[in-house]
Design goal:
Blueprint: H1 2-14, H2 16-45, E1 56-61, H3 69-78, E2 82-95, E3 102-109, H4 113-117, E4 123-124, H5 129-133, E5 139-142, H6 144-151, E6 161-164, E7 167-174, E8 191-194, E9 210-215, H7 221-238, E10 246-250, H8 251-256, H9 260-291, H10 293-301, H11 306-342, H12 357-383, H13 387-391, H14 402-437, E11 448-454, H15 463-478, E12 483-489, E13 500-502, E14 504-505, E15 518-524, H16 528-532, E16 536-539, E17 553-557, H17 558-564, E18 574-576, E19 587-593, E20 608-612, H18 617-621, E21 629-636, H19 644-654, E22 660-665, H20 666-673, H21 675-709, H22 711-719, H23 724-753, H24 769-794, H25 799-805
Helix pairs in contact: 1-11, 2-9, 2-11, 2-12, 3-7, 9-12, 9-14, 9-21, 11-12, 14-21, 14-23, 14-24, 15-19, 21-24, 22-25, 23-24
């Protein structure tokens, strides 16, 4: 082996151009595979950073929606499959300790949740069970990042008091660096407080909790689903409308389920790219092996066995693969850094992407496998020769065996088939991306800014001051230079939360429990639709006069009007949220607005209603932090980001303890909703371009080699009167046949394989004829261009010189 290795190094050193080109082709394939595998490894393969994470599950309504406290109590008591069930509730806390106030993403959690995860705090302790039973919520655990950023990493922080929502909270612990919970919802939580669940365990009407559970040892998720189905069916009979569609899902599946199809498609794409690189290097080795026939024949004549010769060829190919793998690892290092920058924030665990030991082992394994794959055929063919023919000097240049040419043609055709597949994938993503860009969001996102203003825990939260403060904020922001209009809403479309409320329609029979109509719930201030650029289709807008002393009004979207009053005019109709009261408060529909996007860019619009904030007792008087904020929407004449500091300064001038957070342009909100398809398009497009380039180089190399081996034949043809155009047609026809055969094979495979991309597509079918036709034309054009240069070289052959040489 040492002799083979030394000889292989000498051979590669003697052919530097061949070595560089082969190593570069392999490096591209292995580098791309390593980079994408590092993402797959971090997102799909690495276990969640909790104790025995494969036994952790979520319990939610319809996989996504929260559950009620009363149901959690019954599930805990009646199940036989879970060791424990913990819950969490979203919370936004205003932190005003140590300097400027800021709004912090937070969770209230049941005291058993962290112990159930099997994690340990870096400092201090977890919450005590008594703190949940007694309702003592004024304890807090900090994230490592918040501890470092706001408190300088002071280890004496445990036991100290900090100010949240204007009230003192005692720090009882600090979580270790890298800890994140929950991994799929409120993923940026920076502190946790105990949830006073004991005070709400009888409630079944308000679904606000996310439930997490640990399976008992030996219990499968299917058994857990069966047990929960029995329990929820019994509870549904007892409390109608409270326990429908309860789903149990593995926590890891919940975290990565949405991105798995895209990552597997990308992993398959880079696998195809590597196969193309292997085919390229394989026919380079075959051409090189044909040129070394005399050398191999001499070695065989001197007694070398065929296995000895095969081993020499494989040593050279493995050496090439390892050199390519090393170079590919360097490319992957740069590629991973680029991926971390470009990868959408919606991809879970993206901060874990790195070239760890598993990725390095993958690179080593794929390098060795690659060397065997592209080296075995050239090794077998190079060692299978006729000694007499190979040793005859006159045999040089007379052409090659039909079998060698056929194998080389198969390799080139396979390259084009694989390149065609990648072109189809990239083309479908291009069509998807343009279809996504053509979606009307229902508002004008350009020159539009949103920002959350939270008054929780400040003097402005007092009911008698709240509305006056909001009006002052709007007046100050409206007076800023560059502001065209300003208004406010509770949750801005796409970038904010979505609340759904049941309602009843006047004149219709009461709905059965759990079957009341639902609509997305928004509260707005006057001028909202004008500021957002949303069209009012019928009726009037909300006015300053629509206050608590006036009759209740509501504006609905077109979807709600068509759903609940089909064929009728919805204007003047009345709805209520409290039909169980003796004197319900009725809201009159005064306007119908165009449908606007809510939380998902590609989802069909749901029914949506807009109530005047000036008529909302919750947003004007409720002491819960869930109602103590508004989201400003500001339309500007120039770049929205230019006025961010002015907005902060204006609000701080009213009250420095009121934080302004979640500042975002609506262009950025739209862009974020399209980040994943844009990322997939960028990667698939890059891989397709590389694949097409490698396929073009492959057909160029094969045709150049073929022309050089057919010098005598082409010279004879030209000596007998063949026109230059005939020679060009001969060479180009051969190349085009290979491209067309490859495209046909790729077409058949694409019809089957593109169905796996269906979850990634929008507005285009997996078998879109326009995309398929465009890919055929592009592949054919590239094949023609790659073969035309060798064809032009063929017509410059001097017939006399060619015949004399032979």
């Amino acid at each position: 082996m040492f002799q083979d290795l030394r000889y292989a190094l000498r051979q590669l050193r003697k052919s530097p151009v061949f070595t560089v080109v082969a190593v570069l082709a392999i490096a591209i394939g292995i580098g791309a595979n390593t980079a994408i595998f590092s993402v797959v490894n971090a997102v799909l393969l690495l276990p969640l950073p909790y104790d025995d994470p494969d036994r952790l599950v979520t319990i939610l309504h319809e996989y996504d929606h929260p559950v009620a406290p009363g149901n959690v109590l019954d599930w805990r008591a009646q199940n036989r499959v879970f060791e424990d069930i913990g819950v969490a509730e979203s919370w936004t806390a205003n932190l005003s300790s140590t300097g400027q106030a800021e709004s912090v993403n937070a969770l209230r959690v049941s005291t058993n949740l962290f112990p159930m995860l099997g994690v340990q705090p870096l400092l201090g302790r977890f919450f005590l069970s008594d703190e949940e039973k007694t309702g003592d919520e004024h304890k807090v655990i900090l994230s490592y990042g918040l501890w470092q950023r706001r408190f300088g990493g002071d280890r004496a922080i445990v036991g100290r008091s900090i100010t949240l929502q204007g009230e003192p909270y005692t720090v009882v612990g600090v979580m270790p660096s890298g800890f994140q919970f929950a991994p799929f919802w409120v993923t940026k939580a920076q502190l946790w407080a105990p949830l006073a669940l004991g005070q709400r365990l009888t409630s079944r009407e308000i679904n606000s909790l996310r439930a997490f559970a640990r399976l008992r040892a030996g219990v499968s998720v299917e058994q857990a689903r069966a047990d929960m189905a029995t329990i929820t069916a019994r509870l549904e009979r007892q409390f109608p409308g409270t326990n429908r569609n309860v789903t149990v899902q593995l926590l890891k599946e919940k975290v990565v389920g949405d991105v798995r199809p895209a990552l597997l498609v990308l992993l398959g794409a880079v696998g195809f790219l590597l196969l193309i690189a292997c085919a390229n290097v394989a026919h380079m080795l075959m051409a090189r092996g044909a040129a070394r026939q005399r050398e191999i024949a001499v070695r065989a004549a001197l007694g070398a066995e065929r296995w000895r010769i095969v081993r020499q060829f494989l040593t050279e190919s493995l050496l090439l693969a390892l050199l390519g793998g090393t170079a590919g690892l360097l490319l992957a290092f740069w590629g991973v850094r680029l991926l971390v920058v470009l990868i959408p924030a919606s991809v879970p665990r993206a901060d874990s992407i790195s070239l760890d030991a598993r990725v390095l082992l993958f690179t080593a394994a794929i390098s060795i496998l690659t060397g065997i794959v592209f080296g075995i055929l050239p090794a077998l063919q190079g060692s299978d020769l006729n000694l007499r023919d190979a040793l005859q000097e006159s045999g040089r240049g007379t052409g090659e065996s039909l079998r060698r040419n056929r194998m080389r043609s198969v390799l080139v055709a396979s390259e084009f088939a694989l390149a065609f597949l990648l072109m189809i994938g990239a083309g479908l993503m291009v069509r998807t991306f343009f279809a996504l860009r053509a979606i009307d969001p229902g508002f004008q996102p350009h020159h539009l800014l949103s920002a959350v203003v939270s008054i929780a825990g400040t003097e402005e939260a007092q009911p008698q001051k709240r509305m006056a403060f909001y009006e002052q904020v709007l007046q100050r922001v409206a007076a800023l230079q560059g502001v065209e209009s300003v208004s406010a809403i509770n949750h801005v479309p796409l970038a904010g939360d979505v609340w759904g409320f049941p309602f009843s329609i006047e004149g219709r029979p009461p709905s059965r429990p759990g079957e009341s109509p639902h609509a997305v719930y928004r509260v707005i201030l006057p001028g909202y639709f004008r500021t957002m650029g949303t069209s009012l289709l019928r009726g009037r807008d909300i006015r300053e006069s629509d206050r608590m002393t006036a009759s209740g009004v509501v504006i609905i979207n077109d979807r709600m009007a068509r759903t609940y009053w089909p064929g009728e005019d919805a204007l003047g109709k009345r709805i209520t949220f409290d039909d169980q009261q003796k004197k319900p408060i009725w809201l009159t529909v005064i306007g119908v607005t165009q449908d606007a996007k809510q939380d998902e860019w590609t989802a069909a619009p749901r029914s949506e209603m807009y109530l005047p904030l000036l008529q909302s007792s919750e947003y004007l008087h409720d002491t819960s932090s869930h109602f103590q904020y508004i989201t400003l929407v500001v339309r500007t004449t120039g770049e929205p980001a230019a006025i961010v500091n002015d907005i902060r300064t204006s609000i701080a001038g009213l009250d420095k303890n009121v934080p302004v957070s979640e500042i975002e342009t609506m262009d950025q909100a739209v862009s974020d909703r399209n980040a994943e398809p844009r990322f997939e398009l960028w990667l698939l497009g890059s891989f397709a371009a590389l694949a097409l380039l490698l396929a073009a180089l492959g057909i160029y190399g094969v045709m150049s080699y073929s022309v050089s081996r057919r010098t005598h034949e082409l010279g004879v043809r030209m000596a007998l009167g063949a026109a230059p155009g005939d020679v060009i047609k001969l060479v180009v026809r051969q190349a085009m046949m290979l491209a067309l055969v490859g495209s046909a094979s790729g077409l058949a495979a694409a019809i089957l394989l593109t169905r796996t991309m269906s979850k990634l597509l929008y507005g285009v079918r997996p078998t879109d004829p326009f995309t398929f036709g465009g890919a055929v034309l592009l592949v054919s054009a590239v094949a023609f261009a790659a073969s035309y240069i060798p064809a032009r070289r063929a017509i410059r052959i001097d017939p006399v010189s060619a015949l004399r040489c032979e």
